[in-house]
From TrEMBL:
Residues annotated as signal peptide: 1-15
Protein name stated in the entry: Endocuticle structural glycoprotein SgAbd-2
UniProt keyword list: Cuticle, Signal
Keyword check for Hydrolase: no
Length: 126
């Protein structure tokens, strides 16, 4: 029971305001929405954070009603150690795909796997 009371006090203490943090000012902001479903927006804040995105409607399947929104954009911010982190991304019929110098990449495919895939493709099995 004492543990629950201590845990409750800890939760209240952690939920309390942490100092005098002021909101970060937005120094620029633009947005556009068009009748055809296309859109774009971007903003930049005083701390150097930047966000931009644009998108449009696209037929993503065989039926006329298979319409989806495809988007692309980027965002950047400064990490606690002072490095500017930038992510570029797309979201379309192939899913969400992000790129950035800080993101991990898979190791190269082993040569025997490359050869096996080539053989399977040549045999018409892929």
């Amino acid at each position: 029971m004492k543990f629950i009371i201590v845990l409750a006090f800890l939760a209240v203490a952690l939920a309390a305001p942490q100092g005098d943090k002021k909101p970060i000012e937005i120094i620029s902001s633009n947005s556009e929405m068009n009748a055809d479903g296309s859109y774009s927006f971007n903003f930049e804040s005083a701390d150097g954070t930047k966000v931009s995105e644009s998108g449009n409607q696209k037929k993503v399947g065989p039926k006329d009603e298979d319409i989806g929104t495809v988007s692309k954009g980027s965002y950047s911010y400064t990490s606690p150690d002072g490095v500017v982190i930038t992510v570029n991304w797309t979201a379309d019929e192939n899913g969400f795909q992000a790129t950035g110098d800080h993101l991990p990449t898979p190791p190269p495919m082993p040569e025997h796997v490359v050869k096996m895939l080539a053989d399977l493709k040549a045999a018409g099995l892929l």
